[in-house]
Structure formats: structure tokens, C-alpha cells
Amino acid sequence: MFRSLLIATAATGLAAAAHAQEAGPYLEGGYQYFDIKPGGAESGVDTHGIAARAGYRFNNIFSLETELATGIDDGEFDFNVDEDEFNFDDNNDGDLSDVIAASGDIGLNYLIGIYGKANLPLTERLNAYARAGYAYVDLDASLETPGGNFINVEDSADGPAFGAGMSYDLTDNLYLKGDYTYYSFDSTDTSGVMLGVGYKF
């Protein structure tokens, strides 16, 4: 009886210690691909960036994390928008109802967000997770119009974001991860894929 009590107490202590080790901060970083479709663009624009995330694990299931990403190159796109949206008469005919059919480049200045994250262990090392939160994006674009004019546009948007991914523990602290996030911005339809590494402290 006494021996069983000691074993049960020791097991409870070990379980509590293991649980305590699950809580704590973590950092992640890596490559991020974005598909950005600004209002007026005919299709999504491929852009590439780098991203960093910092979070805190409250237990082995729930975390809270922040995200910061920035672009490392611009993507090319075709753009169709009414002149009155820019208040710009490209062909100087006094009519702002014409459509500007332009080509240009779009760049990601930065994207920030905060998310709640739920982790689901699949095996001892493999985990699936989902996250939901709110994000803000800042973009700039350079357009060359049919009239030979150049327009620089900076735009920003915010909205809810949802994603899912998987991670694989290389060691107790170091892991590989990959995920997909959809950013529900009003004026800019954006999705991103991140591949990176993380470290649990």
C-alpha cells in the first residue's frame, strides 16, 4: 500500500514536471510565399518574403503567437481599375469613367498579426495545429498606364486570418514546421505558405 502510494506520487510528480516543460516561449523563422490579389488585379501575384513568429505555450495544446513578415522581392501583375478610383485622367479626355489597364509590380512592405493556436499531437514528434487571429498588411505598387504615366500606390488592409499546419520535432527544443494561412482582407485577397524552423525555450 505504502509502496503503491510512493509510486503514484512519483508518477504524478513526473507527469506534472513533463506538463510544466510544455509551457514556455518559442521563436520561429523562415521563408514565406504569398499569393496577393489586390482589388483590380486580374489574378493573384506571387511574392516572396521572410517571416518571424514569437509565441508562448500555455500548455501542450494552446499557444498565443505574433507574426511579422516582410517581402524580399516584388511580383508582377496586370491591373484593371476605373480612372475615378485614382481620380486620374490617364488619356486626358475629361472622362474619369474609363478603365486603366496597366501592368506593374507589387511589393509587401510588412504584415503583422496575432493568433491563438491549438496544437494536436499526432505522434511523439509529429504535431498538427490550427490558428486563428487578426492581421494587418501594408503593400505598395508601381503601375505603368497605357497613357505612359507611372502611378505609385500604397495600400493597407486588415482582417481575420485562419491557418493550419504541421511541425516535426528534431529534438526536444528544435523543430521543422510548415503551414498555410488565409488572410481575409477586404481589398486584398491574400494567402501565405510558411516553411521554417522553430525553437522551444
In words, what does this structure look like?
- Pfam families: OMP_b-brl.
- InterPro entries: Beta-barrel_OMP, OM_autotransptr_brl_dom, OMP/PagP_B-barrel.
- This is OmpA family protein.
- Residues 1-20 form the signal peptide.
- By secondary structure, the protein is mainly β.
- It has one domain: Porin.
- The protein is 12% helix and 67% strand.
- It contains two helices and nine strands, in the order αββββαβββββ.
- It has helices spanning 2-22, 83-86; strands spanning 24-38, 45-57, 62-73, 75-82, 99-121, 126-144, 150-169, 174-184, 188-200.
- It has an eight-stranded antiparallel β-barrel with strand order 1-2-3-5-6-7-8-9.
- It is elongated.
- The relative contact order is 0.19.
Summarize the structure.
With 201 residues, the chain is mainly beta.
What attributes characterize this protein structure?
201 residues; single chain; disordered N terminus
Q: Which CATH class applies here? A: Mainly Beta
What overall geometry do the principal axes of the alpha carbons give?
A: elongated
Looking at the structure, the CATH topology is Porin
The mean pLDDT is: 81
- Strand count, sense and closure of the main sheet? 8 strands, antiparallel, barrel
**Total count of helical runs of at least 4 residues:** 2
- Binned strand content: over 45%
Rounded to the nearest angstrom, the radius of gyration is 23 Å
Helix content: 10-25%
Strand arrangement in the largest pleated sheet: 1-2-3-5-6-7-8-9
Overall tally of domains: 1
CATH architectural designation = Beta Barrel
